Amino acid sequence: MKTVLTVFRKELIDTLRDRRTLVFMVVIPLLLFPILFRVMFSVEKSQADKERAKKLRVACVDNGNAARLVALLEERDDLTLMPALPADSLRALIRADSLDGAFVVAADFDDEVADLKPGRVDFYYKSADDRSIVRGRLEKIVDDYERELLDARFHRLEMDASIVDAVDMRTHNVASMEERVGKTVGGLLPYMFIIFCFMGAMYPAIDLGAGEKERGTMETLLTAPVNRFHILLGKFGVVVVSGLVSAIVSMAGLYIGIKQAPDIPPEFMDMIVHIFGWGTILMVFSLLLPLTIFFAGILLSVSLTARSFKEAQSMISPMNIAVILPAAIGLVPGVTMDYRTALIPILNVSLATKEILAGTIKTPHLVEVYASLIVLAVLSLYGSAWWFRRESTIFRS
Amino acid sequence: MIELRDVSKTFRLSRQQKREMGARFQSDTVDAVTSLSLTCKPGRIFTLLGPNGAGKTTTLRMIATMLRPSAGTILVNQHDTVRDPEAVRASLGFLTGSTQLYDRLTPRELVRYVADLHGVPRDLYTRRRDEIFAALDMGAYADRRIGKLSTGMKQKVSIARTLVHDPDVLVLDEATAGLDVIASRSIVNLVRQARERGKTVLFSTHRMGEVGQLADDLALIHRGRLLFNGTYDEFVNDMKAPSLEDEFIRWIEGAA
Question: If pLDDT is split at 50, 70 and 90, which confidence band does B76 have?
């Protein structure tokens, strides 16, 4: 144990003095989300403000109909109603950004409305975004106009407006707020920390395996009167700690990012704080620990095989996909925890975290996840130990 | 004392290594050392000579327990390198020209790390460290990062690291390779002092000048096989070439 601690302490000092490792382990996970959220929100806000404040250029081909709609358009200060334009030129003008939107009222619009039928209005706009603010602003004018027409119809027919609602359906979602937030935000969370856990463990693993071989410092360890397994355990410890720190720091970064983001409803924030109680954190951490050991074993084995830092990087980089894929599958709606998914590494952590956050985790599934992760962690540890004892691995050149 | 009894080492080649050896190379294995027997005695300097690829480094790595012999026995201070590797390593100081140091540590941290790995008690470590640092004049840079030190300074750190546990057996593999005259001298001095203190010293080198300065006993190997094993005086007395270097080449060419 003393040897393990000696190696661990030295490797930790060595790792913490390596700027590249520190950047991957702490700086990126901590700053990524706050910076990403801040940039995302501020860009979105400034874009939305611009679209809201923009004086829209609108055309309306009324075909001598819908005089009230034209009047509604004319009386607005936030848009300019363009002079009459030929209907067949509207698409091209909108595409060329000469117009923000255009309405074409059907020639029989007034007759249809008078017959209590729907009058046709074609609305042209350009947006790849379904939540376009420009589109919303223009549609609202037509909605207001429609409401006026409907009120007039109900008044004319001496009917109550509620008559159009044949079924008064009131929906009641019995899922708690915790469940709803847990199953949505909870899906994203493990995706983030699994990736950061892997990334955080990656550089120390490469540095302590292939890096040490390449630098020619391995002989100092191999000629010391200590068991090679103990040396490996010391290195292993540093890789595991790095992965865990990276995952935890990424979560802290995510929390800071959410907290500083504008327009987050306070009740949502309260829910986040409520979900992330100490019990939940400990449970998630207990899943993360064997997963990190599993990652450390795989990463160290590959790193020890490689001849150089660069070779280790090129061998490990494709493994990112193997980590991201199951973590991303956990985000897919409908993929839930069952006896099969509980056995699939990474995916099981993703799904279990979702269930833990939602408060719906079932004990047999959780036991299965722990068992599967612990078996994999032990196998990867002994696998890397076996690898570390091989002459052909250590002296591969 | 180091004893090698009929030691051989065969490396199995990977598919890639075999490809790298060329199409004419048919075997799946390479014999790096074949039936090597020699004895290095305490209080004497044993010099291992041989051209590149002769098997010197493989031999020294087997002695240092980094590699297992494919056949034969190696005893270091009566401990078998296969059966009792930790006891062998406890009595061994290993210094090579290719071994690098941890650039992000300071000399003081590195020497303490090695002492801790060898289980040197704290008070004994402090005393030895102070003695070694004073002898090698390392005080001025003991707390500077190793990566910032000159080659000569680094070599002194390597020596301090090798000596901190006061090993009975010193194995030095091309320890002066790539060093300037001043840095090489610190190694030569180390070897001489070790002999004076009754240590067993096994020293491999290319530099014939160092052989003349240091060797008590000498072995010449080529392609993993022993060509000569005797005292330095015997080697010199039987010389048929005008210089040590020419004699060395004569032996190698004679074996080819």
Answer: very high
Of B68, B86, B103, the CB nearest to A391: B68
Instruction: For residue A240, name the pLDDT band (cuts at 50, 70, 90).
Output: very high
Chain A residue with CA closest to B159: the answer is: A220
Nearest residue on chain A to B86, judged by CA atoms?
A225
% of chain A exceeding 90 in pLDDT: 15
Instruction: State the best of A5, A220, A391 to mutate against chain B, taking most chain B CBs within 10 Å.
Output: A220
B128 three-class SS: helix
Indicate the residue of B11, B96, B119 with minimum beta-carbon distance to A219. B96
List of residues 6+ apart from B237 with CB closer than 8 A: none
- pLDDT of B109 above 70: yes
Provide the CB-side half-sphere exposure for B112 (13 A, CA). 14
Q: Which residue from A17, A18, A217 is facing B100, i.e. has the nearest CB?
A: A217
Contact call for B104 and A392, based on CB within 8 A: no
- Sheet containing B217-222: give its strands across: B92-96, B169-173, B200-205, B45-49, B217-222, B225-231
Of A255, A239, A232, A258, the residue nearest A197 (C-alpha): A239
Q: Are A33 and A253 in contact (CB under 8 A)?
A: yes
Q: B159 and B172 in contact (C-beta within 8 Å)?
A: no
pTM: 0.80
Q: Which residue of A10, A220, A392 is in closest CB contact with B99?
A: A220
Which of B21, B100, B111 would best serve as a mutation to test chain A binding (most A beta carbons within 10 A)? B100
CB contact under 8 A, B116 and A216: no
Strand order across the beta sheet in which B79-80 lies: B29-40, B2-12, B71-76, B79-80
- When the pLDDT of each residue in chain B is averaged and rounded to a whole number, the result is 87
Instruction: List phi, psi (to 5°) of A147.
Output: -60, -40
Q: Which amino acid, one-letter code, is at A331?
A: L
In Å, how far are A265, B121, B131, B156, B184 from B135, measured between CA atoms? 69, 21, 6, 10, 16
Residues of A whose CB is below 8 A from B109? 10, 13
Contact A225 B118 (CB under 8 A): yes
Distance separating alpha carbons of residues B232 and B241, to the nearest angstrom = 15
Distances (CA, A) of A24 to A199, A242, A288, A317, B230: 7, 10, 18, 14, 57
Q: Do A224 and B105 touch (CB under 8 A)?
A: no
Whether the predicted pLDDT of A335 surpasses 90: no
Distance from CA of B184 to the nearest CA of A (A): 20
Residue B99, phi-psi category: left (phi > 0), alpha (psi -120 to 50), beta (remainder): beta
- Could you tell me the end-to-end alpha-carbon distance of chain A, in angstroms, rounded to an integer? 32
Instruction: Note the ipTM here.
Output: 0.85
CA of A226 vs chain B CAs: smallest distance (Å): 6
Chain B partners of A7 at a C-beta cutoff of 8 Å? 117
Distances (CA, A) of A339 to A186, A287, B247: 20, 17, 76
Based on the number of CB atoms within 10 Å of its own CB, is A188 exposed (0-12), middle (13-18) or buried (19 or more)?
Answer: middle
The whole-number pLDDT of residue A130 equals 63
Q: Where are the alpha helices (DSSP H) in B56-105?
A: 56-63, 85-90
